Amino acid sequence: MSTTTPPTVTTHAAVDLGASSGRVMLGRIGPDTLELTQAARFPNTAVNLPDGLHWDIIGLYQHTLNGLAEAVRESHDDGGLTSVGIDSWAVDYGLLTGAEPTRMSLLGTPYHYRDQRTARGVDRTHRQIPFSDLYRRNGLQHLPFNTLYQLAAEDLLGTADKLLLIPDMLGYWLTGEMLAEQTNASTTGLLEVRSKGWDTELMRTLGLSPDLFAPVAAPGTSLGTTRPELAGILGAEALPVTLVGSHDTASAVVGTPLSSPNAAYISCGTWGLVGLELEAPVVTEASREANFTNEGGVDGRTRFLTNVMGTWLLSETLATWRRRSGEEDSLSALLEAAADLPESRVAVFDVQDPRFIPPGDMPQRIAELCGEQDQPAPQTKPEMVRSIVESIAQRFARALADASRLAGRSIEVVHMVGGGSLNALLCQATADRSGYPVIAGPVEATAIGNLLIQARTAGTLTGELAEVRSLIARTHNLITYRPRSGPDRY
Fold it and tell me: Domain of 481?
């Protein structure tokens, strides 16, 4: 009687840090297995200090350690963790000082990208090199908080010995090793768009020492193992740490079950990242004028996309109402009421207006913008929610049309992943306004992408991205929203 060996299933931990919360997700991965459980969740909010907005990076690290310790405990019956991977938001960084590479000290507290100091950095940078020249070199859309603009406004730079982006910083604290993961490094504005290596000539033009930056490494590279002194905290010795697509959108795109070469994606959370996965960057005058970016993707791909204000508008609106009344509104109830409103009562405004970037009173700002555009402002909470959703969808539709035109690629279907994929009103509005079917899910695309690259690095999964992604479609229920009107509404 013959026996067959069951497929190998390995267990991995994804540290997934967003701009408002972080999680440690446990993933059991095999050729036909993709199971996620949450080991830990914790808040991540801006800290308002006298000199501006900052991140509590020490608190995030402690939450990460606690979450990994819980993941170790929960994975015990599965043979323990095979590896750990970290992803986070882009552009923000910490500065380090010290002569001994494994024992460097944090210099100051990392700034939050929404801190308004970056405005002076933009002016200083563009006086040294015009944006048109920057775009030819780094392929990035203009965002006032890109790392190179932050560095132009950085007061502590002269005393720093090293700079690490947020996931690289946490990886350094876990392992004592310094590398700059490629997908996140591509958001700094200091990576050459075609070679995907540091642009040392640009650094010197901007007065930056190339020695400040760690070597660039691709997703799938081993960073090392956790430091021996962490064994008592984690409950495990020498946990392997693998570089994944450490820019959360890079991991989200890996975790998007793109169903066709002509599929577009929207990774929708605080921001909506709208674009295409391409083999090569698109660095043209037209793409620069349309504010499209060419960020690094896993396996050398290019994420050709543009940033659209996402559910930040909804969350800040709810926060404003909570501050005013002291009561918590139910978003699901508001969305249900908003869906019943006639479209004639919906104001559609420009969600890209820069007044919406900093935290604050979004309903008041929306009312002001509507007044400037000679349209009636939303009067009730459901009207405000419907107006925000339709305005985001309108901008998504425009971004999809621009991506198709600029890349010379037709779009057949749009995949919506992340928290926005749970918002049925937003998914349907995006389908209606773009004219494309919208396939929603998975909501945990970022953690899934993180885990899949770890599993492939460990040898549990094999193949190109298309083969790895096929596991998502086989193991997850996806919802399709079909357009109810024509494609030319944006």
Answer: 247-490
